[in-house]
Amino acid sequence: MLQAEMRERFRNPTRSEGRGGAPGEAIVRLRNVCRSYGRGEAAVPALRDVSLEIRSGEFVKIVGTSGSGKTTLLNIVGGLAIGVASDERNPGGIDLWKRNRLISAGADVIVRDYADLDSILALLFTEGD
């Protein structure tokens, strides 16, 4: 698939190509999911009664504050957590402190910023060798 087509799919989440299911069909469905870390009195809830449905052709972005359960949810669904570690003092560079913090928080992929959309889309949509 051409990069321009992937870019259009990324920017137009309502367009369905039927991959992974018929257009509009639910391909991910979570109902009242809970996840805690630790046991007993020391248990720390990461997710409380989270419900989510993703339909074929949809692109979903999960946002929230640090510690809100984004990475835990993505790990349960099998998603990909992309962390942005831009270095404002060195444009085009990666801030090592941000990179290390994102990795420790569970990011699967670290990028400089979202400006390099073609590279991100190639990672997400290009089939392996």
The backbone outline, from C-alpha atoms, is flat
- Backbone structural class: alpha+beta
Largest sheet: 2 strands, antiparallel
The rounded Rg comes to 17 Å
Strand order of the largest sheet: 1-2
Indicate the mean pLDDT. Answer: 78
Order of helices and strands: HEEHEHEH
Which percent range describes the beta-strand content?
15-25%
Relative helix content: 25-40%
Distance between the termini: 14 Å
> What is the count of DSSP helices, taking H or I runs of 4+ residues?
4
Extract low-pLDDT stretches: 13-18
Number of strands: 4
Description:
By secondary structure, the chain is α+β, with helices and mostly antiparallel strands. It contains 4 helices and 4 strands, in the order αββαβαβα. It has a two-stranded antiparallel ribbon. It has a two-stranded parallel sheet with strand order 3-4. The model is unreliable at 13-18 (pLDDT under 50).
